Automatic annotation (TrEMBL):
Full protein name: MerR family transcriptional regulator
Organism superkingdom: Bacteria
Keywords for this protein: DNA-binding, Repressor, Transcription, Transcription regulation
Record carries keyword Transcription: yes
Source organism of the structure: Halobacillus seohaensis
Length: 102
């Protein structure tokens, strides 16, 4: 079951209000591969609370002068670490409880 934080239900206008980022800037971060909104059948972008938090982190890093390619590299490294951690946990569960998937 996914957390409410990960459900893509927020429109770009609300994200704009919550973050102070313009719709243009939000779309730019999407084009740079930093954020991945879902799309409705009509093409409307939908964001999650986790996306809003990530956008705030990105904006803060940009204010510090960090380039988008550096932010993307950092995000990819974080995802790799999470994947390795999840695989290690899965291996421990398999060994301890003979579980196949958590």
């Amino acid at each position: 079951m996914s957390s409410y934080r990960d459900k893509k239900v927020i429109t770009i206008g609300v994200v704009n209000e919550l973050t102070g980022l313009s719709a243009r800037m939000i779309r730019y971060y999407e084009s740079r591969g930093l954020i991945f909104p879902e799309r409705t059948e009509r093409g409307t972008r939908k964001y999650s609370f986790s996306d809003v938090e990530l956008l705030m982190e990105i904006a803060n890093k940009r204010e510090e002068g960090i380039q988008t390619y550096e932010i993307k590299k950092e995000l990819l490294n974080e995802n790799k670490k999470k994947t390795v951690r999840d695989q290690m946990i899965q291996g421990q569960l398999n060994a301890q409880f003979n579980m196949k998937k958590f």
